[in-house]
Amino acid sequence: MPRRAPILRALPAVETLLRHPALADALARIPRPLVVEAVRAELADRRAALRRAAGAPPTPETLAAAAATRAHGALRPALRRVLNATGIVLHTNLGRAPLSAAARRAVDDVARGYCSVEFDLDTGRRGERGAGVERWLTRLTGAEAAMVVNNGAAAVLLALSALAGASANGAPRRVVVSRGELVEIGGSFRIPDVMEKSGARLLEVGTTNRTHLRDYERALDRHGREIAAILRVHPSNFRVAGFTTRPTLEELARLAHRRRVPLIEDLGSGALVDLSAMGLEREPTVRESLTAGCDVVTFSGDKLLGATQAGLILGRRRLIERLRKDPLARALRVDKLTLAALEATLPAYADPSRAAAEIPAVAMLGGAEDRLEARARSLAEALRMRVPELDVSVERGAGEVGGGALPLQRLPGWVVAVRHPARAVDELDRWARAADPPVIGYIRTGKFRMDVRTLRDDELPELAEALGRSPWPTSAPAGRPLAGAPPDALED
Ligand SMILES: *Cc1c(COP(=O)(O)O)cnc(C)c1O
Question: What pTM did the predictor assign?
Answer without folding.
Answer: 0.91
